[in-house]
## 1
Amino acid sequence: MTEQIDWGNLGFGYHKTEKRYVSNYKDGKWDNGTLTEDANIVMNECACVLQYAQTCFEGMKAYTTVDGKIVCFRPDLNAQRMRESCLRLKMPVFPEERFIDAVCQVVAANKDYVPPYGTGASLYIRPYMFGSDAILGVKPANEFQFRIFASPVGPYFKGGVKPISVRISDFDRAAPHGTGHVKAGLNYAMSLYAIVDAHEKGFDENIYLDSGSRTYIEETGGANILFVTKSGKVVTPKSDTILPSITRRSLMQVAKDYLGLETEERPIKLEELEDMAECGLCGTAAVISPVGKITDHGKEIYLPSGMTAMGPVTQKLYDTLRGIQLGTIKAPSGWIKEIC
Ligand code: PLP
Ligand code: COI
């Protein structure tokens, strides 16, 4: 019941909404797809997803704008990225136009769950696909299910936009030539031990290094990383083994075109951390979460922006992106998909 939701105090968690979308792939084709109220999935004990983790997902958000419309941010890029994930995992692509149409159907069917403008919350949309038929020898499934559910959410990190404390992880997330560049469920399974361990030791997240040389900064378990150098340039790691974040790509464009800042995507060495003035984790769930402190094996690196508030450049990036998403700042063409 939506009237019981305390929008301003939502955390980032699953909250069952009324309708979800489902389409099945069998005999080489997708069926027409439909909305259903059934949030449960029944499948064979030997389903490929259960045995061999053949699954990928996406994450995006719907917002209520200042003028009361419900919109979604760049769903075309999520559709394209899911296509890449499916190709890498030997899963059938769910056509991009159908993906966007299904997102719109789910948001419209759950529009009472889209948090009102000004609450800081949003409707998180989770498209996903998995191999559903029984597979025992290691090979891809023949049958698949594509689904989308939605859940109202608040900030990913407790405390909202308060700077967080992260550590350099000794665990790896992605191997060279592996699956780090796609949104495969397996990338997250292998980060679970590391995130529990980080939380137990008092850190909010792990920063992963490139597993080949362990000298370059990659990303965190659920977000890309942006830095602002002491000379005011916005820099972000370039790597083949990180997820191409839609938020990060958008923020780099915002930095350049809206804020007139110099930007650079390049490999960033661990030892360069000391030259950075600000750091933020960016993603659909994280938006931009400012980092106040990075711990590298006992060495504590405090970002000059401090532990109490976002740095000035991060704040401008955050405000501009939020403004674009909420309709208070004019968006670049094609960034905002109006749903209803
Ligand atoms: N990196 C990882 C590992 C993620 O899980 C996410 C979340 O989607 C991101 C980066 C951010 O990507 P996006 O901005 O497209 O949500
Ligand atoms: C997202 O930002 O959409 C993510 O997927 C991050 C995390 C919840 C896995």
## 2
Amino acid sequence: MSLLRLDAVARTYPGERRLFAKAASVRAVDGVSLTVEAGSTLGIVGESGCGKSTLGRLMLGLEPPSEGQVEFDGAAMPAPGTDAWRKLRARMQLVFQDPLGALDRRLTVARQIAEPLVIHGIGDAAARRARVAQLLTDVGLGEDLAARHPHALSGGQRQRAVLARALATDPALLVCDEPVSALDVSIQAQVVNMLVDLQQARGIAMVFISHDLKVVRQVSDSVAVMYLGRIVEQGAADWVLAAPLHPYTRALVSAVPTPGRIARERIVLTGDPPNPAARPSGCAFHPRCPVAVPVCAQQTPPLRAMADGRSVACHLAHPNLDRAA
Ligand code: SF4
């Protein structure tokens, strides 16, 4: 049984009201189905605005789906804000992009790490102190930092403190939304390595949301590529990111700097991602797709299973071919 299961999940927001015009609703996530197994890592990639952060919030039950179902550990996700959902939150934690925004500037590091233990009634004061000390060590922060406030820490130290707080309740699932993109490049690798070590040692399932394909490939077992709210390619990270089949995935992968690859191999997409409130007909990627054919503007390609186990939503990707035409 999967730890997390999403079945045809969609999230729609009302559009902005305009004078003399009907407000068009925005489908930020549209018919997403996926699973996350205990102890494994699913990477979610795509350009900004593709719906990946909304998907992360739906996975944690922070907002309810407009359609479809989210299941955690075999049971339907309770509605946000209910007692059942609050109880479950100890088992599912979120790590944000901006550690300073995620921490309370008025509280010491130790108090913030202990906060989830207090909220969920775990341990007495002495047990919590011992747990905080252990967590500080686990994330590579000295105990001398426990009494500091967030502004007295470096960016990397703050993200380690956020991680210690997220791990305090021994979660089964960690959703990390761009967890290192606000950090200095020199610090990113250290924090990612520490995150993976802790995740593997504790058997935590992780959803790693990022626009950085290099990091996603490093940490993920499987990957879902999103475009305008939908998954366009999904499968084992080594297959999807080493030999992408969908033209959009190919363009993303080609943009990752690789030693020895010449610049002309890069696929440059023209135009910005379209407005989610005015989704293009057929394949939503067709206005930017370098290999689009007439049918692409008319028919939406379904997400189909390929021979190697991945799924691809492209008219030109055929189940028995190794690569799209
Ligand atoms: Fe490109 Fe057509 Fe495939 Fe969409 S369905 S990715 S437009 S080739």
